[in-house]
């Protein structure tokens, strides 16, 4: 019998264009050989042209979904994306906290999603407070992009030195480990920072910036790929490097889709496998 794939739970919003959100995350999880389960936190109405509407969910639906899954299925890692409201953020914090009576879930990756790239609020103001006070300290690693790192810390985050100042502040706020992703800086830099016995360790990942219209969902794909690598037993630095490599390849393989920013190609490896097997497959 084939080896059982680890289960990765994504707690995130629904993006009907499937560049971001739970349907995209399930693709990322499948691309990493894991089994994806999902809890939807909010619905969005959007296309590649941007977010038109956000419909929030009753937090008891979130709680019931999470409890139903966690009492039935062993979960190896958790990805948290868009939460929508403070009530939903609290429901997720209650689920992940010790009070539930279950063992604490491992490998919790929190992507502090605040706004869409088109500027729509994906978390209300009270929700940002819950994210900061309750979810950041609960997570094993948080993955803000430079704009989210700036919004959470109140600092300007535009280069590596400013990323270092922001990560220090995020550690003070209770983050055990942080990856600040700077894919849209002039030089694509990611900074991984983690607490050690006697201070803070770091790894800096640099790459050429990719010019592409297929970047929608890059942040979700990065955070979800990290959760998968942690579920597969990899350490933080290896997980961050492999997740960055995956997202870069998924951006490079993206096809133009729609009239706006198209999705990354989460399943680009399936085409490579088809080609390797001699079955053709488009590029
Ligand atoms: O990329 C952030 C994001 C996350 N989750 C959902 C989204 C978006 C951006 O549009 O719609 C559901």
Note down, in words, how this protein is organized:
Strand 4, helix 3 and strand 5 form a beta-alpha-beta unit. The relative contact order is 0.15. This protein is globular. The longest helix is centred in the C-terminal third of the chain and has 17 residues. It has a single domain, classed as UDP-N-acetylmuramoyl-L-alanine:D-glutamate ligase, CATH 3.40.1190. A six-stranded mixed sheet has the order 3-2-1-4-5-6, sandwiched between helices. The chain has a three-stranded antiparallel sheet with strand order 7-8-9, sandwiched between helices. The protein is α/β, with parallel strands linked by helices. It contains nine helices and nine strands. The structure holds 3-hydroxy-5-(hydroxymethyl)-2-methylisonicotinaldehyde (PXL). 3-hydroxy-5-(hydroxymethyl)-2-methylisonicotinaldehyde (PXL) binds next to strand 1, strand 2 and helix 7.
Q: How would you summarize this macromolecular structure in one to three sentences?
A:
This protein is of the alpha/beta class and 283 residues long.
